[in-house]
Give the backbone structure.
Amino acid sequence: MNRLLFLIAFALAALNGVAQVDVSGVVVEEGSEEPLPGASVILRNADGKIKKFATSGADGKFAIPTPETEGYTLDVSMMNFAKQTVKLDSVKMPVTIVMERSATMLKEVAVKAERIREQGDTITYDVGSFAQTQDRSIGDVLKRMPGIDVSNSGKIQYQGEDINKFYIEGADLLGGKYGIATNGINHDDVGAVEVMENHQPMQVLSGISFSDKAAINLKLKNKAKATWTFHGHAGGGYSWQPEGAVWDGELFAMAVMPGFQNITTLKTNNIGEDLSGSATDFFASGRDTGLSRYVGVSLPGVPNLSGKRTLFNRSALLSTNSLWKVRNGEFKAQIDYSFNQVTAQAANITTYFLESGDRVITENRDGRDRSHSLSGKFIYEVNQKTTFINNTLSTNIDWDDVRLGVTGSLPNEQSVKLPDYHVANKFKMIKRFDGKHLITFQSNNEWESLPQTLNVVMDGNNIRQHIGDHAFHTHESAAYAFSIKGLTISLEGGVKGYLRSLNTELPDLPAELPGKTENALSTNYFTVYATPKFEYWVKRVNFTLNAPVSFSHYTFDKAIANRSEAYFSPSLSMNWKPNNRFSMTLRGGAGRSPMDLNMIQPGYIMTDYRTFSQGVDDFYNSTSQRISANFAYKLTRKGIFANAMVMQSWSHVPYTMSQRFYGDYIVYSYADAKSDGKNLMALGSIGKTLDFMRGSTNVNGSFLRNESRLFSENNAVNTVSTGWSIGARINGSPLRWLSFDYSIDFSNSQLGINGIGNSWLSGMENSLLLIFMPQGEHWSKWEWRIKGDHYHNELTEGKYKNVLLINTKLVYKLNKRIELSAMLSNMFNHRTYNYTTYSELSSYESQRWLRGRELLFTISLRK
């Protein structure tokens, strides 16, 4: 009997196996014929009902077993590609599905979404479930999402690390200037925020070069796609300090089309919001020209308080950014102009700690800083699986004029002109062939001119410091890489050239100062380098070894002796991701590097009315070592995100900064003495969603210890600065008629000099925002918001400064498009703020002015 049952079962299984048909094939990209992993493959019957589905693998292949195919169709879809439908009656297996690139327009389905979803390396946050009534931009909502940190400038970090791309519907419109979108796009236009972990921006490097960075992608709602959207506001009112009219206005326009994107914004205000950094490129590295300003005249600021409480400004910003899709690539144009005028006043007492006795200088400062900035960037990019091409032409023109009047111990008038002209072109091409081989070519060229002029009128005399500083840098390189069985080996080789001229004139040097008053020198170098790199993947671990070696020849036009130097700076990193919840990265490195060439300056340069700088008279090299560890953990179904970082670094420099007094003047130079520094830094953060009140909470902490050395009046000063901080934030809507946002930050710091530690000084800041939303037919359109900022700062041991600043705002929502509001800032009309700070060589007591009470009426509109 058992044998009979076995034979029947075997026969039925055989019949079933005969009846099964494998619907199989491969999904490829049109033109390149490269396989497309992750494509959705859906099998439908003759009635259009879904029978089975699959996803294409890493090789683009798929297979779906089915008992029949008569009348069946195969739907293949993928983001940024047009959907393909194949009738199975007319094809033979395996079938090749060719996908054509196209903008994907997703229909929205009215379902109750999870606040956070995870699929593979992509984390999706539902914007609507995190937004609160007071939020305006998508950046306001991002700040509530656990795992994501957003600065006031719009810069984004995920799990403690900077993101490497910011996309809008899969397109990189803004590059590193994404702060314009973070602080500009209305959160109501965004349906979801996607975080793509381990994101490799260049498709050509996919599977060959590892990335431990994440990218952000904004998924817009249908109403914001394939159309122009607009929103803005205009406000006016009165201020008690400074007395007079105040205004605040913004116009923001966005278009997201299949072949075109644009964001244009216009802002202006005089209510304490500095717009000069709104178009900052967060992805930009330092300029290779290496120039920096010598003149250091700046307006007094107010530490420990929000800029909106202390900034007396008139600011404007115009930014327009466009992206066109052309053939297989994209062309982008970005143009920005900003104007910023700031005024400031302060009363100061500076005490210099000297062996011969303390020196005290009193100052009352009153100044104005007026700056203009115009920049343009034009980019052509092809980003495909076999080819990457990017050419970026950029230009920047900045004007900065500063006027500062000083009364007190040394009365004077200072005026500064600080223009800056910069042009750069960067080209990069990567070609991938046979799937595992890469060839890369790069060509970067930069030119910069940084003239500086300082005029000082003191005791009836006029002193004029003029600086002419110009530099050109070129970098040409080629690289080859191949990958085999998880191992990628690459070798980059290239040359760098640098030409710089510095000319300074100070014809009326004060009689107290001995020495040279002019600098006329050229600083040039030519470098040949090679950088072997090894990357190895084994299971979920990635190892990366870099071993750059270079040879440089420096010429200094007789200012100092010419030099030839060799440098070697190896680094090693390991990334371990055992699962989607946890990841760890260890890094270490050591190296030898040349000195800052700006320090080669044998003559005096006047940096402000009583401070001079003098460089070194010889060429030096420095050495350094560093180790770091990063940890990240997430449990998305419970909304938990945590990260931590610890870093230790050591530096060894054969020279030490020196401070000398000549009468009322100070000279900063360098002594021929070794200086070893040590720096320890630790950061950590943990955040969680609070679903019961549609909120979230976050706790963060930091620790910093720095050891350094300098000379004052030929006496060694060894300093140790130590500081730690801890902060927390919680927000939510516990009741239908109430939402809140509360944060607290506590910090403590100490400065030790020559083994003697000063007292610990602490500071605490509390901020609470309450929003009341009355219920009922006649009150549902009203909102009342009240915000308080409390500052509790320890000025000296046991002596504290408390400041409480309160704003209130009444909002009336006329309809979905129009909102009216009235805001009263600094209700108690606090006008001044006093504080004391300490450094290695001095103490600084100051009284600063605050923005007084302000009343602002605003109308907000959106399309």
Notes: Helices lie at 2-19, 127-130, 138-142, 179-182, 307-310.
